[in-house]
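[step 3/7] fold_predict: job queued, chain A
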Amino acid sequence: MPAEHVDRRTVRTAVLLVVVLTAGAYLPSPLYPDYQRLFGYDDLVMTLLFATFALVSAPALLLCGPAADHLGRRPLLRLGVLLAAAGSCCFLFATSPAWLFAGRVGQALALGAATGAAQALIARHRTVTGRVGGPLLTSLAFTAGTALGPAVAGALARYAPGPLVAPYALHLALLAWGWWRLRTVPGPAPCPVDSARWRPTWPRIAPGARKLFLAAGFNGFLVWAGVGIYLALVPALLERTLRSDDPALSGGVLGAVLTLSLLAQLAGRRCDPGAAQRLGVAAVTVSLLLLAATGAASLPATLGAAVLVGAGHGLAFSGAARAVDARTPAEQRAGTGAALHLLFYLGSGVPAVAVGLMASWMPLTVSVTRLSWAGAGLGVLAVLATARLGDRTRTAEQQTPEPRPARPLRTGVRPRRVPLRRRSPAEVASAAGGPRPGSPTGASPPRLRSRRAATRRRRAPRGAVRDRSDAERPRGVTHG
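[step 4/7] structure written:
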């Protein structure tokens, strides 16, 4: 099978797994009200469910990212598929809130095991001639999974039989398909080492890219926090404003927000990563200001702010991923990518936990308003920090002395030849060992005369007359 075909198939498989695993992690989002009515738990349990995913995915990402660099990508991807299947089975057969917590743990471990490995595979096997680069393709797959999960789960819960069964049955079927496709993924790691000597380690960030990593991670955390506010707010706001608990409507709104993010990522793929981050964070900041000014009580204002947060999320998210990938060595992509996505996961989960905790002693709209003001303030700081980092980078590049070009060689000029001094017959005779016995003094020996004749023949130009006697000899006359 040609190598190019193997690369394309590997990239498609990794993208599919990112979409399926991320969608599975967000399948329960529009179904939580149904679980709450079924099991009768309070808002604190709901908050702890969101916190469980964030708390478990953090160590999983930090450990499994470097493990993929050392042990290979395919074993970690298979582990992620198994853990995701276990999580979906917990939701499928849930009879109490404990099953929901077990399902969230399985989903968090699955994403932690597979995210870094899938991102490294996409970056390694993505062809140079592809229209979409590896980092952007990973961001698109991650966002697509986040959008498809709530939308598909809400639609199936509304129109398919078994609202709490059909979404997870479909997810298990897709996981089985992904497991079957993994058989063609290259097995050995790019830098193979002895797996028995491997120990859990923290991901290593290249020294020259640490400031860039921190800035990109903070921007990604902030824009995912903005999306996380809508993930936690929209279902409750629609239920209170429209008096509707339709999971298809809430899942469709959440899917529309992330669809705008996908379009923004495609539109800004040729934009500079730093400029894309600044523009995206600014859009998310304006969205949070609009949400805070209206008190999260106006449905049109909330939906308008959702448009801004979706577009800003797409620009900043893809810009952060592209900026970090460009400065990361190939043998550290899995660990660094996992550490970066850790900040993204925390950004998407922290707002839901904060809203749940604050709503226990204040109204939902008040808690969302205060959280939006805090996010807007952090957005202003992020824009300033990213702009300052970009200015320093451009200044350093301008001050770096350019290497002097090599002096070109002069063509068409023949090298100057140093004339040789012609030796006298006596010097030639002495160099040859003196006159032979029986030969007159000062006469050149026969051996030396033959050497001179051979030298003249070698030095004579092509086509020249070798002997004067031959030149003076008339044509057609034969001398006996």
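[step 5/7] annotate
The mean pLDDT is 76.
Residues 116 and 339 are 8 Å apart (CA to CA).
exit 0
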